[in-house]
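User: Design a sequence. Structure:
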């Protein structure tokens, strides 16, 4: 912005200077025309005569011509479009210089502790008086060693006389007597005592317990159209855990697919049992369930033994086919061995219940679970009647295993 201002000012200053220069030149030219021109010829002095000569005709000085028209100095044309000096842009926001942070508290340098009291070095004690070494005493007079005496004449030892007796020859050593090695005494072999056969403890047989008897009755708008002889009704002790015999768990349990129908439509199994799903139709079927705790999917398969699944959680399992909407079945997984089916007349019987309070439940495909309280006291229980309320003979629609409605199929051959 400063540069543009300076440039505009310099241009105007040059224009004014040019105008002043033109005016100065014009005035100088005007002054030069007004001044007469001097005769360049030298003048000779006129000698004095007696007779005065008449004055020569006065030289007519030409009248000054009027000044020519002054040169009109062109007025300085106004500058073309004035240079628009751009408005000074506001300075950008000044960069906020961060205020200098106050210096952190100076680290207090600990004042130097005064040196501890100098250890007073003990003044060197004066050396003790030097031990006066006794002056060496002069050696005593050397003891005169007596001169060795000369040995007397050696005593002549008489030579030993030889015995006239002949020397007896040494007798040869007698032959050593070879003693036979003693035969090793055979240690008696320890008798091998056979391990005792493990005693197989017989599993304690459950006490007979009480026998619970009762009957099942259909109620509701559609009760007259239901026949207990044709309807499968399961009776279970609900939400109660007890030991289940191994033979009960290892039983043969299956739901067969035939004529686009699951058979049986209701199956009671103990917890830990394995159920097989064979397909007896010439078409492809599927078996799946999305019930909580027992969710499974056997996939699509044609006529074959089918898949197996082991149920480990107590509860009601609703089984469907992902290909055919109308196929459905129910499996109840019990946590105890007390379960049975109602007979053709709707009667049932449960055995082996100990004293206590239980929840007795009846299961049907249309009514679901129907519960009632059961009390066993002193090995006895009152007869029970279970009323199954049926409002409709049609099953509620369900979704496929992807959670979507089934597609309607037309013209199925089978």
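Assistant: Done.
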């Amino acid at each position: 912005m400063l540069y543009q201002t300076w440039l505009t000012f310099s241009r105007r200053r040059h224009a004014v200077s040019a105008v002043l220069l033109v005016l100065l030149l014009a005035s100088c030219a005007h002054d030069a025309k007004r001044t007469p021109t001097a005769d360049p010829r030298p003048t000779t002095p006129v000698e004095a005569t007696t007779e005065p000569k008449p004055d020569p005709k006065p030289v007519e000085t030409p009248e000054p011509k009027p000044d020519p028209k002054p040169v009109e100095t062109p007025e300085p044309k106004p500058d073309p479009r004035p240079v628009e000096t751009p408005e000074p842009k506001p300075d950008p926001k000044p960069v906020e210089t961060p205020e200098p942070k106050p210096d952190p508290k100076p680290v207090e340098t600990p004042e130097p502790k005064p040196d501890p009291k100098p250890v007073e070095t003990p003044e060197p004690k004066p050396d003790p008086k030097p031990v006066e070494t006794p002056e060496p005493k002069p050696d005593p007079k050397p003891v005169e060693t007596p001169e060795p005496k000369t040995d007397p004449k050696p005593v002549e030892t008489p030579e030993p006389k030889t015995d006239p007796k002949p020397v007896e020859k040494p007798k040869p050593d007698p032959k050593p007597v070879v003693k036979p090695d003693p035969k090793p005494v055979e240690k008696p072999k320890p008798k091998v005592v056979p391990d005792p056969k493990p005693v197989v403890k017989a599993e304690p047989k459950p006490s007979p317990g009480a026998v619970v008897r009762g009957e099942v009755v259909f109620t509701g708008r559609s009760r007259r159209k239901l026949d207990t002889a044709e309807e499968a009704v399961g009776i279970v002790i609900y939400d109660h855990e007890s030991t289940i015999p191994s033979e009960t768990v290892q039983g043969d349990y299956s739901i067969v697919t035939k004529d686009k129908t699951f058979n049986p439509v209701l199956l009671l199994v103990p917890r830990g049992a394995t159920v097989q799903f064979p397909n007896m139709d010439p078409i492809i079927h599927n078996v799946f369930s999305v019930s909580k705790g027992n969710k499974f999917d056997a996939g699509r398969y044609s006529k074959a033994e089918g898949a197996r699944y082991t149920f480990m959680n107590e509860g009601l399992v609703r089984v469907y086919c992902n290909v055919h909407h109308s196929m459905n079945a129910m499996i109840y997984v019990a946590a105890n061995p007390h379960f049975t089916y109602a007979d053709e007349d709707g009667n049932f019987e449960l055995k082996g219940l100990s004293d206590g309070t239980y929840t007795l439940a009846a299961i049907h495909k249309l009514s679901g679970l129907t519960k009632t309280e059961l009390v066993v006291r002193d090995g006895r229980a009152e007869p029970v009647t279970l009323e199954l309320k049926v409002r409709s003979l049609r099953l509620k629609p369900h979704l496929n295993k992807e959670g979507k409605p089934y597609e309607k199929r037309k013209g199925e051959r089978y």
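The two ends are 94 Å apart (CA to CA). Helices lie at 2-34, 246-249.
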